[in-house]
Structure formats: C-alpha cells, structure tokens
Amino acid sequence: MYLVAVLGNMLIILTVSSDSHLHTPMYFFLCNLSLADICFISTTVPKMIVGIQTHSRVISYGGCLTQMSFLILFGCMDGMLLTVMAYDRFVAICHPLHYSATMSPCLCCFLVLVSFFISLLDSQLHTLIVLQLTCFKDVNISNFFCDPSQLLHLACSDTFTNHIVMYFVGAISGFLPISGIFFSYYNIVSSILRFPSTGGNYKAFSTCGSHLSVVCLFYGTAIGGYLGSALLPSPRKNEAASVMYTVVTPPC
C-alpha cells in the first residue's frame, strides 16, 4: 500500500510536469498535494514496516519528536492544500470568466507558501507543547506513530493547560480549512442550482467528485478517530482510523 501511494503520487507529479497542457492552477495544486502526501505517508509507514520486520517497537525520544513534528507539518499541509483546491474549483465554476486573471501563477505560489508556513507554525507549536513535559509515567504509545495527544496522557505532571492549548491550536488548524472547503462548496452548489443544466452540472460535479472523496476520507477518519478516542477510548479503533488517514492517501 505504501509503494502504491508513493508511486501513484510520483506518477502524478511526473505526468503533470511533462505535459504542458496540464500546467494549470488545478494541476499545480495537485502536484503539491501529491508531494505532501508522499512526505506525509513517509513519516510513519517506513518506521512501522521496519518495526514489523525487526519485531522492534522502540523509537527514541528525539525520533518520536521528529516524527511528530513532520507528521503534523505534512498533515496540516494536506488540509491546507485541499482548502486551496476547493477555492480553485469555486473560482473556476462560480467565476469562470475571471478564472485566468484571479488564479495567476503568483497567487498560486503565494497560496502554497502560505499553506506551508501555517503548517510549519502549527507543527512547531505542537512540538513546543510536548517539549514542556519533563517526565513520563509510561513509555508505551497505543499507536504506530507518535501522537502528541497521547504523549500528553503519558506525562507525570499536570497537563491541563497543555491540553487546552493543544486542542485550541488543533481546533483552529482544523476548523479553518474545513470552513474554507464548506464555504467554497456551498457557493459551488448554490451557483449550479441557480442555473440548472444537465451537461454543465455533470461537468462541474465531475471536477469536484474526486476532491470531495479525498476530503471526506482524510477529515472523516481523522475527526472520527480523535472524537472516538476522546469519547470511547479504544486503541484498536483509534489505530484503524489512524491507518485510514495516514496510509490510505488516494490522489485527487
């Protein structure tokens, strides 16, 4: 599954790069999303595969922090790029005559850079929160990667403030992309229903279908995993949900 994900995303990048007809904003964002997917899946799965083959479940403290930092960085990057792609579809469908002028190369590069720096900030904030912990009452993580929320549960000291800050940062970094995607598709659907046309509706929804499926898979399993673990703690269910959004990364 790891090789399929990596090779599939690499194929997308090579195809878009080699075909001049695909040098459009939509495929530019798709290339960046594919690159982020490769990096995202590579932060956890290779370590898991090595652990399975060597029958070792050990990871160093520094390795755990590094894995957690890159996992949040590229995970947040995925969410931000999915939001940017939703905005791109919104402009293409709702304002087609202004699409070329609005989605200029400069704006596309700017949106990708902003997505990266927001993701980097989110990653560093989570890392700083975990670095405040001085000792751990247990060293067993009930998952196949270093999850910051689970590291807080293992801390010896009082982590109430850390939990508040972490959940606040996580809610902001998750709420903003979801709000952007919802706003874009609300306007897309409203625009399509305002001017009913069978052929136009099919073409519009066909350009959004794959994007929506990735959004539902990525956010649905991530949110479901975190809410499920918070309300009804179950390591097995949490691990299964984690595999869905960290290993299964279908391209748009």
Write the layout of secondary structure elements.
Blueprint: H1 2-18, H2 25-42, H3 45-54, H4 61-94, H5 99-102, H6 105-131, H7 148-153, H8 160-194, H9 198-231, H10 235-246
Helix pairs in contact: 1-2, 2-4, 4-6, 4-8, 4-9, 6-8, 9-10
**Which structural class fits the helix and strand makeup?**
mainly alpha
* Beta-strand fraction estimate: under 5%
Q: Which CATH C-level class is it?
A: Mainly Alpha
Encode the helix/strand succession as letters.
HHHHHHHHHH
Please name the CATH topology. Answer: Rhopdopsin 7-helix transmembrane proteins
Overview features:
Rhopdopsin 7-helix transmembrane proteins; 252 residues; mainly alpha
Structure report:
- The chain has one domain: Rhodopsin 7-helix transmembrane proteins (Rhopdopsin 7-helix transmembrane proteins, Up-down Bundle), CATH 1.20.1070.
- The protein has helices at residues 2-18, 25-42, 45-54, 61-94, 99-102, 105-131, 148-153, 160-194, 198-231, 235-246.
- The model has no long low-confidence stretch (mean pLDDT 82).
- The longest helix has 35 residues, at 160-194.
- It is an all-alpha fold and 252 residues long.
- Helix content is 78%, strand content 0%.
- The radius of gyration is 20 Å and the shape is elongated.
- Helix 1 packs antiparallel against helix 2 (25-42) and helix 6 (105-131) packs antiparallel against helix 8 (160-194).
